What does this fold into?
Amino acid sequence: MKTNCETVKNSLGAWLDGELGHADAEEIRRHVEGCPSCSGERRRLERVQVVLSGVLETEASRVAFEPFWDGVRRRISEERPRQARLWEWARPAFYPQRIAWAVPVAIVFLLAIFSLVQYAPGWRWGVNRGNVAAVDSIDGHGFNVAVLRESKTKTTVIWLFESQEEDDEASGEPTAKDPAF
Amino acid sequence: MDLSDWELVQRCQNGDVAAFQELVAKYYRKVYMVVLGILNHRDDAMEVAQEVFFRAYRSIQGFKGGSAFYTWLYRIAVNLSIDFQRRQKRGPTELRETMDEAVDNAEGASSANDPFLDLQSKELGQRLVAAINELTPDHRAVIVMRAIEGLSYKDIGRMLGCSEGTVMSRLHYARKKLQEKLGPYL
Ligand SMILES: [Zn+2]
It folds into this structure.
């Protein structure tokens, strides 16, 4: 099959760029040499490339090294150590005027936690209702106490009194059957 | 890869700024051409080209020599330029004023005795810059890389993060567009 101009023109760029395999390249070359239309196309393609390179090369030749390097060096020396940049990034958080809003927010937050602790639903053995407290020990060391650990800093000690009945609930405050801690 | 480049890179990795200066001296014009070709604006190109070398310096520890240094460098240049171009919408090019001289340099030898061709080439240079401005940054990148370095499609694909086939079709499209715009001047 004879190579047609359309096909050749589609591959002309890749051929000029040396990106075609040997056989394809040879076929294109033979066609272009004998086809005025395709050789004209080839000349136009080359011209675009040559003029573009020329424009960019002329521009680049005007850029002197010293000022260019000065700009690069300035950027390098301006880059502070990583820690300094990190601090710079984090520092605004510590400005007094910036944290002013945080004070009432923190107070409200603490109050909310406090009231949750106060009014949260009761806590039963074996049923964790989202309360973060954990029983550390019951009747540990032979004393009649339950140790309820609510946080790292808050531990509640509850005195246990022996119940006369065989109660399912293993603990309870003396005055309440359903203890709410 | 080029042994002397690799040696310089290794010295940079040990904190030798003078070695980096040598690499900059070797490649700054090429990088500037890549960036200028994509941005079409001298001042922006200067800024971005310097930033390219700064970024290269900052991440030189991550360069393991798997590819040529210039491939790695051009990739930074192309990415920064395309990124910059997308963020910054520039007006018409300001490069036209240098077109006469550029075209003289490029074609001086071949058309020295043909005033008509000279005139045509100058016109062509001006039109070309305007036409390139209308291409997308991706298309500009492939045509510029090819025009500057004669890089292989494989290398260009590696730099742009696309396949050789994509490079080929982008180049084909970009050239076709340029020819459409430049028709009578070619
Ligand atoms: Zn033909």
About this structure: Residues 36-61 of chain A form the longest helix (26 residues). The beta strands of chain A are 134-138, 145-149, 155-159. The interface with chain B takes residues 10, 13-14, 17, 19, 43-45, 47-61, 63, 65, 68-69, 71-73, 75-76, 79 of chain A (CB under 8 Å). Chain A has a mean pLDDT of 72.
